[in-house]
Amino acid sequence: MTKPLFAIYGAYGHTGRLVASELLARGEQLLLVGRDAEALRALADELDAGDRVRTRTATVDDATALREVMAAAEVMIHCAGPFAVTGAPVAAAAAEAGCHYIDHALEPHHVKGVFDTAQATAQRTGAVMIPGLSFYGGLGDLLAGAVADGIAGIDRIVIAYAVHGWRLTTGAKNTATHLFAETERLTFSDGALHAGYVEPRSAVFPFPPPLGPRTMIAPFPSSEVVTVPRHVPVRNVDLMLSNSAFEAPEAFESEHIGAAERAGTDFTIAVQAIGEGEGGGAAGQLTGHDLWRAGALASVEAAVRIAEGRGPTKAGVLAPGEAFRAEPFLRDLERLGAFSITLADVTDKGR
């Protein structure tokens, strides 16, 4: 049987390299894609996997090249941010070609845009598309699904990220600069998605020991406001990011550091599900090191499952927690060393 071909857009970036290495470790065939032919050839030589790795130059404004990539590949994993710039044309080409698609977007407007513009096309062509399946956004969405499982009615989901030692890549820096300057924020409250200006505020989130309470940036502009309500019956979604993520000045001055230094992050993602009235509640957390690897493992695990026919039973654009059963998917990532997961033992979930 012919092995599926996995395309990686932005393959020579930090996340793209992690994705490529993990796919090769699983014995897969790769098509490395990006705008810089020399960088693609250098990465192919570095990976040293012979005819299991091919390259293809394609810019986001070259519709013909993108169509040719999607026609050749079984799954596209898009790693080249900022997705506010690169996301729409790559996602559209995948949907039109029936190529399965996963991206590492954080930006909620991009994720919403994929749902709004690619849904009908993907359903028609048979493409499974999961935007935002990365560390920020994707893991929070999946943890929210695992924590909320079995709660009859949920008033509020709170997703809080505590990150220490984050060193931004060029793409991440450009994304962060764009997001924190954005005035048209997406929020989810009173059972509906809203767009408009939201005054940033400081908050304190009670992370479990040993981390303890942390000062947070709220609201944090991440894609869970778009994805979580698609599979969790919730009226409000709150997102927070620890101030410590940006406290070190080198966070924004680290574009050219080595991979080993960039891996030196510590993280906790915590979720609280607060039931309506006396409906109970639940909590859970993911703790680990190297947020970049955790995101890469999540996208690779999803891509391989889809290619092997172990993915969703329906085509179209899906939230991570729609595409896969949340807790089993997270447990598999835990076994791969992405993080440790803890789900609270809650006796009353309003069942």
What does this structure look like?
The protein is of the alpha/beta class and 351 residues long. It contains twelve helices and 16 strands. The strands form three sheets. It has a seven-stranded parallel beta sheet, with helices on both faces. Helix 4 links the parallel strand 4 (75-78) and strand 5. The longest helix is centred in the N-terminal third of the chain and has 18 residues, at 108-125. The chain is globular. 50% of the residues are buried. The model is unreliable at 347-351 (pLDDT under 50).
Record the SSE blueprint.
Blueprint: E1 5-9, H1 14-25, E2 29-34, H2 37-47, E3 53-57, H3 63-72, E4 75-78, H4 83-97, E5 100-103, H5 108-125, E6 128-130, H6 135-148, E7 154-164, H7 170-181, E8 185-189, E9 192-196, E10 201-206, E11 213-218, H8 224-227, E12 234-242, H9 259-262, E13 266-275, E14 281-289, H10 291-307, E15 316-317, H11 320-323, H12 326-335, E16 340-343
Parallel strand pairs: 1-2, 1-4, 2-3, 4-5, 5-6, 6-15, 7-12
Antiparallel strand pairs: 7-13, 8-9, 10-11, 11-12, 13-14, 14-16
